[in-house]
Amino acid sequence: MSSVSKWGNLAQYDWSVMSPEFIILGVATLLSLLDLFMNKKADRRILAWIGFLGIIVAGYFVVRNTGQNVVSILNDMYRVDGFANAFKLLFLSGVAFVFLISLTYIDESKNIRYSGEYYYLILTALLGAMLMASSSDLITLFVGLELLSISSYILVGTRKQHIHSNESAFKYVISGGIASAITLYGMSFIYGLTGSTNLYVIAERLSSVFYDGFDFLVYFSFFLMFVGFAFKISVVPYHMWAPDVYQGAPTPIAAFLSVVSKAAGFAIVLRVFLISFGSLVSFDMETGQQGSVLVNTLSVYIAIVAAASMIIGNTLAMRQVNIKRMMAYSGIAQAGYLLVPFATLTVLMFEQTMFYLVAYLFANMGAFAIIMLVNRDQKTEDLKSFAGLYHRAPWMAIAMTFFLLSLAGLPITAGFFGKFYIFMSAIVHSSYWLAGIMLATSVVSYYYYFGVIRQMYMRPGKTEAPLKVPASIGLVVLIALVGTVAAGIMPDPVMQYIHHKFPLQQMFQPGGQ
Amino acid sequence: MATVYMNNYLIVAIFLFLGILLPVGALTLARFLRPSNPTEEKRKTYESGVEPVGSSWVQFNVKYYIFALLFVVFDVETVFLYPWAVAYDSLGLFALVEMVIFIVLLVIGLIYAWKKKVLEWN
Amino acid sequence: MANYFLIILTFSPLLGVLLLAFIPKSLPGTVKAIGILATLVPLVLTFMLYANFNLVAEGMQLSQQWNWIRIPIGEQAIPITFEVGVDGLSMPLLVLTTVISTMAAVAALSINKRWKEFYILFLIVEMGMLGVFSSTNLFQFFIFFEFTIIPLFFMMGIWGYMDRERAAMKFLLYNGVGSAIMLIVFVTLFILVGTLSMEEIRQLLTDPMSPRNVPNLPGYIPDSIRFGLFLALLIAFAIKIPVVPFHTWMLKAYQEAHPAVIMISSGVLIKIGGYALIRMNAAFFPEWMNQLSTLIAVLGVINILYGAVLALVQDELKQMLAYSSVSHMGIMLLGLAATNLQGFQGAVFQMVSHGLIAALMFYMVSLVHERTGTSNIRELGGLAKSMPMISGVLLTAMMASAGLPGMSGFISEFLSFVGLFGVKPVIAAVGALGLILTAAYLLRAILGTTFGPIQQKHESLSDAQAIEVVPMVVLLSLVILIGVYPAVLSEPLQTTLQNIVPRIGG
């Protein structure tokens, strides 16, 4: 083992499992250098294509990692398991969509002056998200979270000349900073109580701490961390930034925030709480009964948060006239639905969440692509810009109809099955009130989703001129439409793929080293 | 266990208490000891005698901040380099490679700042 | 072939959708022709179904099932199947669906824009209706049910009168609430019983040996839960039927939507409510059907009287027809509340008969409206002079609706009331008052439109054209056929209902 002594202990780790991250990092660095040395006037779209290629290659390596055993390096600071791979594929496909949408967005609108930065900041944000999916150490998780957050703060403000963009970037930074502070405050309690940042070690020690009279602090840190994470997934009580930020952000970035950033938030929520709090058991002195704290006590609060998000998101969305604000409120409600599996914790929790996220990815990316196209053409983000879309671009209108149906959870779309699976978990858990709120708010959401459909089909538009659809937008819409409908008719292959390729049990196997 | 944990907070409380007490106590004590004889000159901003001119709300050139930020970045870099250098023998060549990557990334940051004309004052 | 018959039938309207997709918009004549011809395919198929129907066989015929979705739980997977089947209850409704659809497709000739979209949506709704009646699985039932709602939203919102968008929205939200409640019940049943197949659920819930019915066994479903499920289903279908006070969406829809849309909505769609009450409420929870029969009867009487009284004061013919539908659906509820064979037969007869008559009446009113530009009784009158054919058929349809012997309305009302008089004579007697009111409002309407002095501007109006006569003749002859020879309907019904009714044990 002379090589060990020469290269050091660090070289023993299997670094190849990190290749997706390395590729994204490398491509982001390459893009920044290329951008610096390219002619100022040169077309920056080549950068987007290089980045897109990098995403595809990284995706290939993630696929190669799927179905393998757990690999953990650096004392579980980085690990590859089913959970991580599933989320990484989701992020990569989401960012691939965002790149395709951005190609058209940046091409036409001259208001983003630093398109080179725009592309590689998306990649660094993606890198942060991937780290968040793939770590089980509080420090690495937080570094990933901040990498994602800081990149997105800048991305939101890339329209430098645009007053709304400045406002939203500023709001995003301030509220994001507060959220990070709250998260860290919660994490500091956990570290103080258990003396470790490794989630598995925390899990081992948390129970004894819990019985030593610190149950209050354990709950307190849980709620602090949850509130901090609530910012990323934009649920009550930390949802109010979303409408302002979506409105001011460039549309592709709004799509990024609503899908990739949100999914990353769910990754960290599930990872942290399932591992570190999952095995925490409370002991009732009077009855002598044991019960999981997460299942018995905390899940009620999560369910309340989920219900409040559904109610607030869906009712406020009805009053919006700006389509991006409406999508922001819709996103708050969708995050509420997505919390239901976590609040009910049935055996299918992970599959349900992933399926819903996949459905949401297709529907939201498709919808934002069309929103971008229509808003750019009409020079307004008003709901009315959709008037008469059916006569101008019938296929876009039909596709948008399917995306909206999917978001509303109506058959035959992926969104319906996503809601159906989640709904089932609420009933299995006997949370009838939650199931009831879920369906009631879904019906409320018909009002505003069909409001867009009304504009597209039933109102005359300002112009009847056919809407020109650029190839990259057409591609996004086509893939999203095929995905939405295919998973809406045959949800089974998707569900089985998630179930077999991304086993959740892997998440609970400590790396050991 | 619980008491040990709480004892830690006791130390924090003591420090907090001391931190507030010291300046307050020192100033109060000084108030009793010193003679009070204010004159017009003593109330000036700069007791050295320099006359303040204009408003104190002046805008600093934004370059100051960028310079300061750049300085902090490279300053913090050394914080990582020192422990690595001390433990170099036990870390091995791999850590050298890592440190090279780290420095290269910083250099890219420098190139970025240079190309964006941050290093020029005008 | 026989194995796939119901699948082919259900999806046969899609053939038309496919053809229409390739026809350019600029050829409205071709689009209309294909739209109507496409409805003939399922029509012919349902007639074949009727002709080959086994009258004595118990249970589902032509049934077929495929695994569709597996819910993975550990190593096992619970399947949700895609299954079809037809029995004496669903077969007549399938025939009704295709007949009304073809007639409505003909009535839709009068729309004035976007024919291609209309017929595509129309055929999708027809597929949805066929799917609802041929499903023997709750999940699939739900999905096809949604298939009828969403295209109908578009049809109401795009083609219709002034306030059509609000009508469409109201329709969507009411039916959305109904289907949401339905989904809660279905999923709860799935969790409790472990299957979504209607037949398996029925057996597990009603078989005395099933662990679901033995107290103290794991999996036992207590009465309180059954009661909750029954009530939730009742509310879900009450919105569809519609039962007062959930009827307001229908008033708006009748007023604003295109006649062809109302023909399928009132002719077929609202019958899904009654069908499901028998298929689910009565079959899954017979004991509660029995215990709550008084509630259903009271709801029925309220529907009859409320609808009839308000129909009496409407000047707008379309609103009168809407309230008349509410009233007639009350009679169907009375039949169901009887919980005996006559009552159930009456209820099914009422579904079919009201489907035919309501479609016919609305079609006639729409013809009048097209020609005169109004459907207000005060602005009409003496139309028998300028359009004797339309007036005559309208008169006949209204007589059928009032329950004139020899027509289908008589048989269904007679059976429903006979059924109910045997068990709840007082309620039946109160309900029978409605029949008098029915005759009164129908007479008032017919007198106001066809008799009396004619307005000058209406004198030169033309009578029905050849193509417009087709729906009149077809619908009217079916109404009379059932009235004269009720066995066409009662024979296939007999075996199926004999299977369901004794379990209720009225």
UniProtKB/TrEMBL annotation, chain A:
<dbReference type="GO" id="GO:0042773">
    <property type="term" value="P:ATP synthesis coupled electron transport"/>
</dbReference>
<feature type="transmembrane region" description="Helical">
    <location>
        <begin position="216"/>
        <end position="241"/>
    </location>
</feature>
<keyword id="KW-0520">NAD</keyword>
<keyword id="KW-1133">Transmembrane helix</keyword>
<feature type="transmembrane region" description="Helical">
    <location>
        <begin position="430"/>
        <end position="450"/>
    </location>
</feature>
<feature type="transmembrane region" description="Helical">
    <location>
        <begin position="329"/>
        <end position="348"/>
    </location>
</feature>
<feature type="transmembrane region" description="Helical">
    <location>
        <begin position="253"/>
        <end position="278"/>
    </location>
</feature>
<dbReference type="GO" id="GO:0048038">
    <property type="term" value="F:quinone binding"/>
</dbReference>
<keyword id="KW-1278">Translocase</keyword>
<comment type="similarity">
    <text>Belongs to the complex I subunit 2 family.</text>
</comment>
<dbReference type="GO" id="GO:0008137">
    <property type="term" value="F:NADH dehydrogenase (ubiquinone) activity"/>
</dbReference>
<keyword id="KW-0874">Quinone</keyword>
<keyword id="KW-0812">Transmembrane</keyword>
<feature type="transmembrane region" description="Helical">
    <location>
        <begin position="298"/>
        <end position="317"/>
    </location>
</feature>
<dbReference type="InterPro" id="IPR010096">
    <property type="entry name" value="NADH-Q_OxRdtase_suN/2"/>
</dbReference>
From TrEMBL, chain B:
<feature type="transmembrane region" description="Helical">
    <location>
        <begin position="6"/>
        <end position="33"/>
    </location>
</feature>
<keyword id="KW-0472">Membrane</keyword>
<dbReference type="GO" id="GO:0048038">
    <property type="term" value="F:quinone binding"/>
</dbReference>
<comment type="subunit">
    <text>NDH-1 is composed of 14 different subunits. Subunits NuoA, H, J, K, L, M, N constitute the membrane sector of the complex.</text>
</comment>
<dbReference type="InterPro" id="IPR023043">
    <property type="entry name" value="NAD(P)H_OxRDtase_bac/plastid"/>
</dbReference>
<keyword id="KW-0874">Quinone</keyword>
<dbReference type="InterPro" id="IPR000440">
    <property type="entry name" value="NADH_UbQ/plastoQ_OxRdtase_su3"/>
</dbReference>
<keyword id="KW-0813">Transport</keyword>
<dbReference type="Pfam" id="PF00507">
    <property type="entry name" value="Oxidored_q4"/>
</dbReference>
<dbReference type="GO" id="GO:0008137">
    <property type="term" value="F:NADH dehydrogenase (ubiquinone) activity"/>
</dbReference>
<keyword id="KW-1278">Translocase</keyword>
<comment type="function">
    <text>NDH-1 shuttles electrons from NADH, via FMN and iron-sulfur (Fe-S) centers, to quinones in the respiratory chain. The immediate electron acceptor for the enzyme in this species is believed to be a menaquinone. Couples the redox reaction to proton translocation (for every two electrons transferred, four hydrogen ions are translocated across the cytoplasmic membrane), and thus conserves the redox energy in a proton gradient.</text>
</comment>
<dbReference type="GO" id="GO:0050136">
    <property type="term" value="F:NADH dehydrogenase (quinone) (non-electrogenic) activity"/>
</dbReference>
<dbReference type="InterPro" id="IPR038430">
    <property type="entry name" value="NDAH_ubi_oxred_su3_sf"/>
</dbReference>
<feature type="transmembrane region" description="Helical">
    <location>
        <begin position="64"/>
        <end position="85"/>
    </location>
</feature>
Automatic annotation (TrEMBL), chain C:
<dbReference type="GO" id="GO:0005886">
    <property type="term" value="C:plasma membrane"/>
</dbReference>
<feature type="transmembrane region" description="Helical">
    <location>
        <begin position="347"/>
        <end position="368"/>
    </location>
</feature>
<feature type="transmembrane region" description="Helical">
    <location>
        <begin position="292"/>
        <end position="313"/>
    </location>
</feature>
<feature type="transmembrane region" description="Helical">
    <location>
        <begin position="417"/>
        <end position="443"/>
    </location>
</feature>
<dbReference type="GO" id="GO:0015990">
    <property type="term" value="P:electron transport coupled proton transport"/>
</dbReference>
<dbReference type="InterPro" id="IPR010227">
    <property type="entry name" value="NADH_Q_OxRdtase_chainM/4"/>
</dbReference>
<feature type="transmembrane region" description="Helical">
    <location>
        <begin position="464"/>
        <end position="488"/>
    </location>
</feature>
<keyword id="KW-1133">Transmembrane helix</keyword>
<keyword id="KW-0812">Transmembrane</keyword>
<dbReference type="GO" id="GO:0042773">
    <property type="term" value="P:ATP synthesis coupled electron transport"/>
</dbReference>
<feature type="transmembrane region" description="Helical">
    <location>
        <begin position="320"/>
        <end position="341"/>
    </location>
</feature>
<keyword id="KW-0472">Membrane</keyword>
<feature type="transmembrane region" description="Helical">
    <location>
        <begin position="173"/>
        <end position="197"/>
    </location>
</feature>
<dbReference type="InterPro" id="IPR003918">
    <property type="entry name" value="NADH_UbQ_OxRdtase"/>
</dbReference>
<feature type="transmembrane region" description="Helical">
    <location>
        <begin position="141"/>
        <end position="161"/>
    </location>
</feature>
